[in-house]
Design brief:
Blueprint (H helix, E strand, L loop, with lengths): L17 E6 L4 E6 L5 E5 L7 E3 L9 E4 L5 E7 L2 E6 L7
Antiparallel strand pairs: 1-2, 2-3, 3-4, 5-6, 6-7
Pfam families: RMC1_N
Organism: Acrobeloides nanus
Protein name: Regulator of MON1-CCZ1 complex N-terminal domain-containing protein
């Protein structure tokens, strides 16, 4: 039996244009749209803690994970390659 808790988050469904991953360390659902070219979004249970960025489409992404402070993202497109991305938050002026 599936039981939902009081805290939840919504995310777009998996389709031929998007893939869904779960980052177990940070408890985030990661959505990859268009192999990252249309965006990579990681959502947690707090609404303020959404991480979003874009990367060039160089093939299907098979793994997405983040550092515990959410400042570095790792993207794997094959078992032989990994791309590290430094995330710089934009400030609202």
């Amino acid at each position: 039996m599936l039981k939902l808790g009081e805290t939840y988050t919504t995310f777009e469904p998996c389709s031929n244009l998007s893939d869904i991953f779960f980052d177990r360390v940070n408890q985030r659902i990661c959505t990859v749209r268009g192999n990252g070219e249309m965006g990579v979004t990681a959502k947690g249970f707090e609404k303020e803690s959404i991480v979003s960025f874009r990367v060039q489409d160089k093939g299907k992404i098979i793994v997405v994970c983040f550092s515990t402070d959410l400042k570095i993202a790792c993207i794997c497109r094959s078992v032989q390659s990994m791309v590290g991305i430094v995330i710089i938050p934009l400030l609202n002026y």
